[in-house]
DNA sequence: CTAAATGCAAAACGTTTGCATATAG
DNA sequence: CTATATGCAAACGTTTTGCATTTAG
């Protein structure tokens, strides 16, 4: 936890960004909700509990910054909001998601299932893959009745 | 072309929807731009050339309807707009995309690369896969210099 | 000290909705 | 004829922006 914050602090400073209390509070919220898929509004409300003076615009600006630094990934499941998902430390690629069309639950898959597929794409389409987004839509275990 | 429209007409009628001139014009635009990834606004402007009286709201309502009928897929590449992509006739699954981070071009991959991956997901996570979304981000052939 | 960041309110944006009118079947 | 669809304008929710003020480094 603390060392991850330290890490992010270094990343910020290396590009002459500052680690403000608001940014730190935002990062802490993200770390504490690592498996969730929070919207900007969600993050705002959670940060507000600890740092009540923060403004929604600052949260948006911070999330944008963290996306740029690849600390988080900005994702979109088709409802009208962007969601923000912390990257696992050192993860090269974005993880995958299973979205249940019945209950709306979102499950994360950490393991990279796309190694072979990426090779095909690189060869066949001469496309230099940098990252991917993979989401499955279907029915989750507990909704299968 | 004409038979695809006829087909869609039948699908509409089977659920007591009507094939209005506005809907037909919208479908024709989608058919004429099969490889593009048009936003609602894009579609609106193109339809307007042929049917100038159409309203943007009608385009939105038509695209929503076609999404429900699985004639098109609504996709989101992370810019703020939804895009609409015609399904290949009889396609069970949504096709994949290669998005170039340099020039923004979008290439479609028709062949299904995820057969094996889906089997893993079904077994390992007991998740009943209905559809998927797969997008690769990287550098396309012509930007690799 | 000064460049960078903040909070606020206003604006912008894509999308949806209410409603009176028109029309496909 | 009637349920369904339309066009328009207003409303909506999310995200961005301008600006005067504050602050981390």
Automatic annotation (TrEMBL), chains A, B:
Keywords: DNA-binding, Iron, Metal-binding, Repressor, Transcription, Transcription regulation, Zinc. Binds 1 Mn(2+) or Fe(2+) ion per subunit. InterPro entries: FUR, Fur_C, WH-like_DNA-bd_sf, WH_DNA-bd_sf. GO terms for biological process: negative regulation of DNA-templated transcription; regulation of secondary metabolite biosynthetic process. Pfam families: FUR. Zn(2+) binds at residues 100, 103, 140, 143. CDD domains: Fur_like. The keyword Cell cycle does not apply. GO terms for molecular function: DNA-binding transcription factor activity; transcription cis-regulatory region binding; zinc ion binding. SUPFAM superfamilies: Winged helix' DNA-binding domain. Fe cation binds at residue 132. Its cofactor is Mn(2+); Fe(2+); Zn(2+). Gene3D superfamilies: 3.30.1490.190, Winged helix-like DNA-binding domain superfamily/Winged helix DNA-binding domain. It comes from the Bacteria. PANTHER family: FERRIC UPTAKE REGULATION PROTEIN (PTHR33202:SF7), ZINC UPTAKE REGULATION PROTEIN (PTHR33202). Belongs to the Fur family. This is Ferric uptake regulation protein. The gene is fur.
């Amino acid at each position: 936890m603390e060392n991850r914050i330290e890490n992010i602090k270094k990343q910020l400073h290396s590009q002459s960004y500052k680690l403000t209390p608001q940014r730190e509070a935002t990062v802490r919220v993200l770390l504490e909700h690592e498996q969730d898929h929070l919207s900007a509004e969600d993050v705002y409300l959670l940060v507000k509990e600890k740092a009540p003076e923060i403004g929604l615009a600052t949260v948006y600006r911070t999330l944008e910054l963290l996306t740029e630094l690849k600390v988080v990934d900005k994702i979109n499941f088709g409802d009208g909001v962007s969601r923000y998902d912390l990257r696992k430390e050192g993860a090269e690629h974005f993880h995958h998601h299973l979205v249940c069309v019945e209950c709306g639950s979102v499950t994360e898959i950490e393991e990279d299932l796309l190694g072979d597929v990426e090779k095909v794409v690189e060869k066949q389409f001469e496309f230099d893959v940098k990252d991917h987004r993979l989401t499955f839509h279907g029915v989750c275990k507990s909704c299968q009745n």
